[in-house]
């Protein structure tokens, strides 16, 4: 009888040891497959703008930071000799992952085409040519003097007879929208919002 109890107790102990070993082996192997959090420096908007302008030998008209899953991308519109490129750049590596030549002007209806021609004529009449425009980096520095944040959107727009940089900066849950005169560098408007989650 004692022999049977001893064998039974030995089997229970052995099962416990084997079971514990299997559990630890499974736990260790499951940790190996888990994604590790890696902090990598990403391009800021100023560096991304410089890189794209050098690569395309053109002027960035609009840029915004976009997130897709766990990756970040800059989406930009670049003007190169009267041609517009839509570009998507990996915000970590700086690699252009998508490029399209925008030919939407060819498909515009007569009303939009006429409006574009009127805007161009108005710009020429007012001697507002793009050679007098301050660099995007300068507009960003002007905005950052008023609000310390990361630039998430930037666009050069022709509005009310003048070129205007429209910028969006984010710092934590605060968001600032700027309109900056693209020739004088004057801040035309500044709006700061507190974003609730």
Kindly describe this structure:
There is one protein chain. The chain has 197 residues and is α+β, with helices and mostly antiparallel strands. Among the domains are: 45-102, Nuclear Transport Factor 2, Chain: A, CATH 3.10.450.40; 136-194, Nuclear Transport Factor 2, Chain: A, CATH 3.10.450.40. The protein is built from 5 helices and 8 strands. Strand 6 and strand 7 form a beta hairpin. The radius of gyration is 29 Å and the shape is globular. It starts with a helix and ends with a strand.
What is this structure, in a nutshell?
38% of the residues lie in helices and 36% in strands. It is an alpha+beta fold and 197 residues long. Among the domains are: 45-102, Nuclear Transport Factor 2, Chain: A (Roll), CATH 3.10.450.40; 136-194, Nuclear Transport Factor 2, Chain: A.
Mean pLDDT: 75
Give helix and strand order, one letter per element, not per position.
HHEEEEHHHEEEE
Class computed from helices, strands and strand pairing:
alpha+beta
Helix content: 25-40%
Strand content: 35-45%
- Rg over CA atoms: 29 Å
First-residue to last-residue Cα separation: 69 Å
Total strand segments: 8
Low-pLDDT ranges: 11-15, 17-41, 106-114, 123-128
Shape: globular
CATH overall fold name of the domain at 136-194: Nuclear Transport Factor 2, Chain: A
CATH architecture assignment name of the domain at 136-194: Roll
Organism: Oceanobacillus oncorhynchi
Keywords: Coiled coil
Protein name: Peptidase propeptide and YPEB domain protein
Pfam family, one: PepSY
């Amino acid at each position: 009888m004692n022999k049977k109890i001893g064998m039974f107790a030995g089997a229970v102990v052995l099962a416990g040891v084997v079971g514990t070993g299997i559990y630890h082996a499974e736990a260790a192997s499951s940790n190996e497959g888990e994604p590790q959090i890696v902090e990598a420096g990403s391009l800021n908007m100023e560096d991304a703008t410089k890189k794209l302008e050098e690569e395309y030998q053109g002027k960035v008209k609009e840029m915004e930071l976009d997130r897709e899953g766990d990756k970040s991308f800059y989406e930009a519109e670049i003007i190169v000799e009267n041609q517009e490129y839509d570009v998507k750049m990996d915000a970590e590596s700086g690699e252009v992952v998508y490029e399209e030549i925008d030919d939407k002007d060819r498909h515009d209806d007569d009303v939009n085409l006429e409006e574009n021609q009127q805007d161009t004529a108005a710009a020429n009449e007012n001697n507002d040519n793009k050679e007098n425009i301050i660099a995007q980096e300068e507009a960003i520095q002007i905005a950052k003097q008023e609000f310390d944040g990361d630039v998430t959107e930037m666009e050069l727009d022709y509005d009310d007879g003048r070129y205007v940089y429209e910028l969006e900066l984010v710092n934590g849950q605060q968001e600032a929208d700027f309109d900056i005169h693209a020739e004088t560098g004057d801040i035309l408007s500044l709006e700061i919002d507190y974003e609730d989650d």
